Amino acid sequence: MPSTTTSQNGSHHEASPSPPPPAPVPLTPGPRASRLEKVYAEALARTLRANSYANFSACFPTPAKHVPASLESVWRQLNAKLEESAKAEFDEIMREKDAVRGLNELDRLVGEAKLRRENGEGESVVAPHTLGAEDLYRAHLAPFLQEAQDSLNEKLEATQVQNAELAEKIRQQRLEIESLLSGLEVIVADVEGAAGATAQFSKENNLREEVVKMDEEVKARQEI
Asked: Are 14 and 4 in contact (CB under 8 A)?
């Protein structure tokens, strides 16, 4: 029966009921805790099988040859002690970390989440009549705006691809122009060299002609 409180004016009203306490988490290993224990047991068994008597006796050839029964007894005791210590340490860690309780709680939360998802709970469903005019307006426009945005995104991606192709073509054309300019510079240098050589040749011919004229004038004067 819910408790009642009395106000200053003498009226009575029921207090809001407190939420029920959460169900206690059982300490019996659930699916995840059981799986953890199974995996550890399998790993420990593989470790013990790896320490076979053949491998163990190979490390002690002399006792294995002379007292094999005693060596085998030591091997069995060693494996038993190893198994006992490993299990005890695992159990101690499970107790210290309260692993069973935590894993059981995780199992419970996952189960509740799956149940809510199957029942359609957890999804925010808003009745249309509770929305305002602006919200309804946006809700009706949202599909069209999304379609327009998708179309613009596609066009933008296509334009970016075309721009990248044009940029590559421009780069190739620039390389070709640079190559042509380099070749043209070589041709101009050759032409300038040829022009210089021609001018030098003409200059040398003019000097020869002047020398010939001077020789002729000298000879003419000597004859006079």
From this structure: yes
CA dist., res. 36 & res. 99, Å (int) = 10
Query: 72 is written with which tokens?
Result: 């085998």
User: What is the rounded (10 degree) CA torsion for 90, 91, 93, 97?
Assistant: 140
CA distances from 207 to 69, 123, 193, 217, 221 (A): 123, 107, 21, 15, 21
What does the block give as tokens for 7?
């106000």
**217's tokens:** 């004038």
How much is the pTM? Answer: 0.42
Alpha carbon separation from 14 to 18, 35, 59, 197 (Å, rounded): 12, 48, 81, 120
At CA 87, angle to CA 81 and CA 90, rounded to 5?
Answer: 140
Integer CA distances (angstroms), 13 to 1, 16, 18, in order: 13, 9, 15
For 21-72, the pLDDT digits (tens) are 555 556 788 898 899 999 999 999 999 898 899 988 898 999 889 999 999 9
Span 156-166, mean pLDDT?
Answer: 85
pLDDT, tens digit (0-9, with 9 covering 90-100), for 80-93: 999 999 999 999 99
Q: How far apart are CA 87 and CA 94, in angstroms?
A: 10
